[in-house]
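Colleagues,

For the teaching module next term, I've prepared a clean inverse folding example: a structure given as tokens, and then the sequence designed for it. I'd like students to try predicting residues themselves before seeing the answer, so please don't circulate the second half yet.
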């Protein structure tokens, strides 16, 4: 079955779709049953224009490759149509809906979603919540409170970078076509530990038992998995008996103590800060737009996005519905009257679709992106019907460090 045929079959399978009419202007309209609205009895329809394949320069690597998508433009789309598309790996950007063509793309993108019924906060996620709570109370982070006692445990910048790369490599192995095909569940501990005094350091002065941990979890031979990981990492490693050995130059150790002190001074505030979380209709306002520009400039080094770009991307929405419980909404994070973050969500019958999130880079130390996800998970767990249980977090590129929070 061709890709276009698959798309058409997806749309035909919608519960409310009963007729398909192609107009002279090239658009295709799908008429469904009228929704129960005693005031208007208006019939809602999906009207889309098939735009076909497109490509763009890859933003996730430095190899000048291209990523390919198949897209449609929607002047209107019903909840059921959108829900069906999102469950078949489609995404929305303004009025444009697209599905990545991973086989042809430089950096494949994988759709991610979270079942809130199965979610349990792990240690790192609880730490994010505590960090925000301490920030609002004006208290230092617990790890900073004990920094004088734990200075010897501070890790060098190189070790932290190696742990990040190891996490990315493990993600690639478990999510990329052509490699081990297993369901990658949550955050796997990729800590690199220093060998004890007196240990044989001829093969490296640090080690990781990630291969043995995955071996027990997924019933894979640890030796084979360790070899696969070592073949794909960029830094010097050796695999012996399922253990990954790493050589780290400890002379270039980062000043972790001063980093902790800087973080404490930035995060510690006057007591009783107030964080207000407000959700409302997706409307334009200058404060949100200015924050968006600051985020794009400092995080993505993009100075070319205009007000028109912002409106077409994050304000305009083709969703048509009579039910105010669904549609496109903005969730604003306001700290003592100052806007520090905005999450753009589409609320569908099956769950929340994360369209975009931007924040004030001055507050990056409190992990606003992860904090926002945890707040939305809690909201969905407490305010939903039984079928509305997913959070769709958009695309994930395994080797892109900016997307690692989706795995965590």
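(Answer key — instructors only)
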């Amino acid at each position: 079955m061709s890709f276009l045929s698959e798309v058409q079959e997806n749309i035909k399978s919608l519960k409310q779709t009963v007729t398909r009419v192609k107009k002279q202007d090239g658009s295709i309209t799908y008429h469904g049953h009228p929704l129960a609205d005693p005031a208007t009895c208006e019939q809602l329809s999906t009207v889309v224009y098939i735009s076909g394949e497109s490509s763009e320069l890859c933003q996730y690597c430095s190899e000048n490759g291209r990523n390919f998508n198949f897209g449609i433009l929607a002047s209107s789309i019903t909840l059921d149509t959108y829900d069906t598309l999102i469950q078949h790996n489609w995404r929305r950007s303004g009025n444009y809906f697209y599905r990545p063509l991973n086989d042809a793309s430089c950096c494949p993108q994988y759709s991610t979603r979270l079942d809130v019924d199965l979610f349990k906060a792990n240690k790192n996620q609880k730490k994010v919540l505590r960090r925000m709570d301490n920030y609002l109370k004006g208290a230092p982070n617990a790890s900073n409170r004990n920094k004088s006692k734990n200075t010897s445990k501070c890790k060098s910048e190189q070790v932290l970078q190696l742990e990040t790369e190891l996490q990315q490599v493990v993600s690639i192995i478990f999510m990329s076509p052509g490699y081990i095909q297993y369901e990658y569940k949550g955050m796997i501990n990729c800590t690199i530990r220093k060998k004890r005094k007196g240990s044989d350091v001829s093969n490296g002065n640090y080690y990781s038992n990630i291969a043995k941990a995955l071996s027990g979890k997924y019933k894979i031979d640890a030796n084979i998995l360790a070899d696969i990981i070592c073949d794909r990492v960029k830094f010097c490693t050796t695999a012996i008996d399922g253990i990954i050995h790493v050589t780290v130059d400890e002379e270039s150790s980062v000043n972790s103590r001063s980093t902790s002190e800087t973080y404490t001074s930035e995060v510690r505030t006057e007591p009783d800060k107030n964080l207000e979380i407000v959700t409302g209709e997706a409307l334009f306002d200058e404060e949100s737009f200015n924050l968006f520009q600051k985020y794009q400039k400092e995080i993505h080094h993009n100075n070319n996005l205009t007000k028109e770009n912002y409106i077409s991307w994050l304000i305009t929405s083709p969703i048509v519905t009579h039910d105010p419980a669904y549609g496109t909404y903005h969730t604003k994070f306001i700290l003592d009257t100052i806007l520090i973050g905005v999450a753009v969500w589409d609320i569908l019958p099956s769950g929340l679709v994360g369209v975009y999130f931007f924040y004030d880079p001055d507050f990056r130390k409190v992990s606003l992106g992860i904090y926002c996800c945890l707040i939305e998970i809690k909201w969905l767990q407490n305010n939903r019907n039984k079928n509305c249980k997913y959070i769709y977090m958009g695309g994930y590129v395994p080797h892109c460090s900016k997307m690692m929070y989706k795995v965590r």
